[in-house]
Amino acid sequence: MDMGKIYVLGLGPGNPDDLTMGVLKRIKSGDRNYLRTEKHPTVEYFKQNGIPYESYDYAYEKGEDFLGVYEYIAEDLALKADKYKTINYLVPGNPMVAEKTVEILLQKESESLEVELLTGISFIEPILELVRRDPIDGLKIVDGTEFKLKDIDINLDCIVTQVYNTRVASNIKLVLSEVYGDEYKIYIINSAGIDGEEEIHSISIYELDRMDNIGPLTSIYIPKVDKITKKIYNMVDIIDTMELLRSDRGCPWDREQTHKSIRECVIEEAYEVVDAIDREDMDDLIEELGDLLLQVVFHSQIALEEGEFNLYDITTELNKKLIYRHPHVFNEKKVEKSDEVVYNWNKLKFKGRNIKTYTDTLVDIPKLPSLMRSYKVQQRASEVGFDWDTVDGALDKVKEEYYEVIESINYIKGGDVEKTEEELGDLLFAVVNVCRFLEVNPEVALNKTINKFIDRFAIMEAKSDRIGKKLEDMTLEEMDILWDEAKLHRFNK
């Protein structure tokens, strides 16, 4: 079977003088020429020299999204190569720079299809000349049609290409504003490399979709954040800062810390995150999430210094776990309800561990704060049917444990401390079970009560001040009166 062949030719940035001899030879070879788009200045050369061609511009009008258009073009080219055996496919710039159709074609290479590249000058070189920037310190090139927050790297210069229209530019503006702010200076560039048509404008991000000359030959250049005047930071900066703090030039306290010495900080910061969520304080949540992230970076830096692991090991393990435990997203497994997701998650979670019995699943629960651990243990036990039929059974158990506490206190004069401790534990465990039945998080519920107590105590103290009497000088009966008044008072912070 004869093999089909596609020559992929780079048309350069737009000046016909930039076409290479190899590309010119192929264009004039007599083989059919197919252009991804004729919205490119070099196409005029075809017209002036009577070189026939066909364009895929029609595909952009029919396609629902750019990826679908590119896949269609690649598939159609493969069919034409099979039919005509040798064809030319022409793209703007360099075929290996920001050309999705070429990427798809290379994936299609097989025993029946060959793809050969004849490069041209890309749009990158003329853009760098216009902005007077050397890419030696790092340059990122991003597709504007799929621009997302994850594409931003504040420590690298960035070229956003394929800014086809105002709609694409508007989306890019919104993403950039999230990180850099509205006033950050960027460059918008048109017709880079085309004599007499090049345009470069230094603008603020908020102006991006207000430009009236955005089109197929538009690119955006985003300079990296200056290290001296830096106002925004990313994970790389945090890692660098932590490395410095742990170095000989850093902080004596930070250098002294170990995994064990800061382990309690993880718990503390996690609770402060929860507190910020409960208070719906988004500014505080930003700060507390940062403090929690610091613990991850801190532990990973200690581990790196000791040759144990690094931050990439953490992120890799996490992402592998997310993919593995979501087969309904990344594989073909179908689920309809969220409880099915939870069931499959737990099933996959235990699969790789030495868990042979249901008791092992209970032991496997980490040493969490007691209320949280109780909740999880009861939840696991209920999965095998060891549970009350209704909440009434759980409530009756609370009553039973309450009377056993009373009995333990009265067992001997003064009470049996160990026995009372045991019975009080049983009572707390039973109360947690009621919470589980009612889908109430016991940690959250208890914290709300603690906060309510503090609020009422503050009111009580304020009332005592107004009557000119200190709490410590009052009788319990007097304080009870103020407490009852506080309960009736709506507390406003």
Descriptive overview:
With 493 residues, the protein is an alpha/beta fold. Among the domains are: 4-121, 3-Layer(aba) Sandwich (Cobalt-precorrin-4 Transmethylase, domain 1), CATH 3.40.1010.10; 125-222, Methyltransferase, Cobalt-precorrin-4 Transmethylase, Domain 2, CATH 3.30.950.10; 235-309, Orthogonal Bundle (Helix Hairpins), CATH 1.10.287.1080; 444-488. The chain is 52% helix and 11% strand. The protein is built from 20 helices and ten strands. The strands form two sheets. Strands 3-2-4-1-5 form a five-stranded parallel β-sheet, with helices on both faces. A five-stranded mixed β-sheet has the order 6-7-10-8-9, covered by helices on one side. Strand 2, helix 2 (43-48) and strand 3 (54-55) form a beta-alpha-beta unit. The longest helix is centred in the last third of the chain and has 25 residues, at 442-466. The chain is elongated, with a radius of gyration of 34 Å. The chain starts with a strand and ends in a 5-residue tail after the last helix. 22% of the residues are buried. The mean pLDDT is 87.
